[in-house]
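User: structure tokens for Lysine N-acyltransferase MbtK, please.
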Amino acid sequence: MTGEDLLIAETALEQGTFALRAVDPAADAELVHAWMNDPEVAEYWEMAQPRERITAYLREQVGSAHSTPYIGCVDGTPMSYWEVYRADLDPLRHHGPVRLRDAGVHLLLGPSAYRGRGLGAALLRAVSDWLLRTDPYAGRVVAEPDVRNERSVRAFERAGFRLDRRIDLPGKRAAFMVRERTA
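Assistant: Done. Predicted tokens:
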């Protein structure tokens, strides 16, 4: 993914209209900082850090050659943080069965009001559909949620991902999840 992919086509969901927009590190740092420092999020993202470090992290993501950060909005309200990446160019390729041109996705549901309602699965389905639609060379979308994060793993499964295997990554044991392109 590249910085030119600024917005996916809006997707109508039961909960409202969902869209992704590019992260602006200066404007979005406070929001992402608050989400990363939420204890429920921090347990799995391990990014409960000062605002300045979150701003620097967002700048690193924006400047990445293989990863693009987004803010997800429902009816215009920011409610999620996303990283969409080329898994075959990511360090993940050294730890799991990554294939050439695999797309990867990370998701953080920000405000707790958006968690535990089935929204994560709908969003993951919409974003993985978009990834497969816009990159004809990607045969699948992969993810690696922490195996302890059972709600996240279930959301991926409900979105059409399957557990391929468990893998060891620096700092966590992960469920390597795969959603294949279908005809």
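User: Anything notable?

Assistant: The helical segments are 25-36, 39-45, 51-63, 119-134, 150-158.
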